[in-house]
Amino acid sequence: MMMYERVLLFLCLVASCFSSPVQSTADDNVLARAEKAYQGIEWKPAFDECGSSRFNTLVEATRMAIQLTKPRRHPESTPGWNRFFLSDKHIKKREGWVAQAGGSHLAKVSKIMESVHQYPSKAKQGKDKFKIAYRCRDTLAICKSVPGAAAVTAQPSRGQSEKWEVYLCDRFWGTGHLKDKRHKNSPQDLETLRSFEHVIVHELLHCDVVTGSNPKIIDKKAVLPSWPTEVDVYGASRCSEYAWLYADKQKANFMVKENADNYAWFYTNNWFNDEWKWHDDGERR
Ligand SMILES: [Zn+2]
Question: In this model, does residue 158 exceed pLDDT 80?
């Protein structure tokens, strides 16, 4: 009995001498580093709510989301563009992304893509009130309100000083990092390649502190050829169908520039095309 208590006491001492203080200093360092490196994010709520392992995952996913969204000189010439926005080669002359109205549709999309890439490193005008918080607490009710969601972004109420918040649902934690995805041979498997980074980019796009409000990036609903009733345009297959909705009439569906998941899949498609040398052309077959 005595022995047991002594062992227990020793274990407690080990825990308090070595584990807790050292661990908490290490955690504080991680928080300080995240706050310095990614100033567009309000890190304290995630630090307090998510636990240290998930907090670290969020920091790494934010770092990689910046890589995922690295701007390309000609986004409109990538396979991801063809699949999730539709290449001008399929569109009537002077009616495409580049040619139509002096390229204003393409210019808008490019601007949004640039903002989402830059935002995590630097909040708007460096101001605290524009920072976005990741949340792990009280996610149940809000996640339930959007069945199947990996994360839900909440808009601050008008006139209040609350910030944009991204609630991370159970499904989010099951997606995994881009870099940990098992090799796939072709874009046919895109649907299985949703990652932490993909979800974070999708959610950041909803925040108008990131992308502005013209257009507002939302989750569109539409009637698509594959389903008789209106659906959420969500997932690789539906997003691609949405982009190609009028392809047989040689027209673009410019509405895709308002749908968050089309952007996220554009990035994921191009990322794995480069990573795994798919030689993808973005065509729907
Ligand atoms: Zn969304």
Answer: no
How far is Cα 30 from Cα 43, in angstroms, rounded to an integer?
A: 10
Nearest to 243 by CA among 229, 258, 228: 258
The alpha carbon of 145 and the centre of ligand 1 are apart by a number of angstroms equal to: 13
Residue 158, helix vs strand vs coil = coil
- What is the Å distance from ligand 1's center to 206 Cα? 7
Q: How far is CA 239 from CA 116, 226, 236, 243, 257, in A?
A: 19, 12, 5, 6, 11
pLDDT tens digit string along 169-201? Answer: 999 999 999 999 999 999 999 999 999 999 999
Ligand 1 centroid – CA 101 distance (Å): 28
Separation of CA 70 and ligand 1 centre (Å): 21
Residue 261 CA, ligand 1 centroid: distance in Å: 7
Q: For the chain, give the mean pLDDT.
A: 89
What's the pLDDT band for 243 if we cut at 50, 70, 90? very high
Question: Which domains are assigned to the chain?
Answer: 35-275 (3.40.390.10)
Residues 263, 272: contact at Cβ < 8 Å?
A: no
